[in-house]
Specification:
It is built from twelve helices and 15 strands. By secondary structure, the chain is an alpha/beta fold. About 4% of the residues have low confidence.
């Protein structure tokens, strides 16, 4: 049975050219870039080339790119690293004494949107343990945070805002530039989780005006275990891991050189292809929507259909239980909400926009990618139509 993969927002296959770029760094160029040997210079040069590749993708300078182990670490560094500086004044030696729980000053305040990734939510829980007050900002029925509602929550003590660029479940894109401008007018730092958006839409950090921005390699046809954090020039940030200092002093430990090289290659590939790919991805999604509507007699509801969203993502409430559809059409790899505790990202997002538990149980998230074909889309439509007929008969 040949699988039809439509879960590219979860992870992507590694592109052949990316695999090829990494090969020599498993064996021939196995040294670390910091080693004092002439043969290590090739490794150091490869790391810096990768940094340049990521910077071209984001529209920033290479020295504003910090390599991490993935999006989760990048989000933690962007949130907790900024929070430590906001409280300590950027003095590492005074860090512990300036934690909110050890100080007498006003309690710092952070705003976190309701539809953030679990890594951002978990980092915000750590802020609470450090004495911060963290306020969750709700979204509307389309997963969008209202700039007016967001601004109304600002306080004199608000130091940090965490805002997702695009939601990986609904595909909706936040008005980040407007939100960031509001924050900067009040001296509030903005961390942006862009892991779902990078590679789907063009990104320029100077247009977005965020202070830090995260990405991960495995969602742009690169390897797992590699990611990066954009840190705006001149911005103070504390490390959150300690040991032998790397990455401009913001990360400890030996570099994952093959992963970094793979990330750089994937970033360069994405930068070349992202504009052209948008139209194709959008066409495939529209083909899927039209096909399902015509074969399922209108028993489909496309969430956030007429709002600005990622070109590769559609979230659809079907006419029957999503898990039963998945079981009946096992050839398709697609995302559904998991009825577990704590709730997964898809469940949290759908609850946040007001969907009922029954509606959530009927919802599938489709995310197409570079290797998706029209023939696959047509096959998916037929498979889901057949499965629905069996389940509803």
């Amino acid at each position: 049975m040949s699988l039809i993969y439509l879960d590219f927002n979860r992870t992507t296959p590694v592109a052949p050219s990316v695999i090829e770029s990494m090969q020599a760094f498993w064996s021939t160029h196995f040294m670390l870039p910091s080693q004092s040997h002439v043969h290590a210079s090739a490794v150091s040069e490869a790391v810096e080339n990768a940094r340049e590749g990521v910077s071209m993708l984001l529209g920033c300078d290479p020295f504003e790119v910090v390599f991490t182990s993935g999006g989760t670490e990048a989000n933690n560094l962007g949130v907790l690293g900024a929070a430590m500086v906001c409280r300590s004044g950027g003095l590492p030696s005074d860090l512990i004494s300036h934690y909110p729980c050890n100080g007498d000053g006003p309690t710092p305040h952070a705003l976190v949107s309701e539809v953030e990734d679990e890594s951002v939510i978990a980092a915000s829980r750590q802020l609470r343990l450090l004495g911060w007050e963290v306020e969750t900002v709700p979204c509307n029925e389309y997963g969008i945070v209202s700039p007016e509602a967001f601004e109304s929550r600002f306080r004199e003590t608000t130091h940090l805002a965490c805002l997702q660029l695009a939601n990986p479940v609904l595909g909706t894109i936040q008005p980040i530039r407007k939100l960031a401008d509001l924050c900067h007018n009040r001296g509030i730092r903005v961390h942006c989780d862009a892991t779902a958006a990078v590679g789907r839409i063009p990104i320029d950090v100077n247009i977005l005006r965020v202070d830090t921005l995260s990405l991960t390699a495995h969602k742009i046809y690169g390897p797992k275990g590699a990611g990066a954090l954009f840190v705006r020039r001149g911005l103070d940030l504390h490390p959150i891991s300690y040991g032998e200092s790397r990455e401009m002093g913001l990360r400890a430990g030996s570099e994952n050189v093959p992963g970094i090289v793979g990330l750089g290659a994937a970033a360069s590939l994405t930068a070349r292809c992202v504009d052209e790919a948008q139209a194709t991805l959008n066409e495939l999604c529209e083909r899927l929507i039209d096909g399902l509507r015509s074969t399922l007699d209108g028993r489909v509801t496309v969430l956030s259909e007429h709002h600005d969203r990622l070109p590769n993502t559609i979230c659809i409430e079907m006419g029957c239980e999503a898990r039963r559809l998945q079981k009946a059409a096992r050839q398709i790899v697609v995302a559904s909400a998991q009825s577990i505790s704590p709730p997964d990202e898809m469940t949290r997002t759908l609850r946040a926009i007001g969907r009922t538990e029954k509606q959530i149980g009927r919802t599938l998230r489709f995310s197409v990618g570079w290797t998706t074909s029209r023939e696959q889309i047509d096959k998916v439509v037929n498979l889901l139509a057949e499965a629905s007929e069996v389940i509803l008969s």
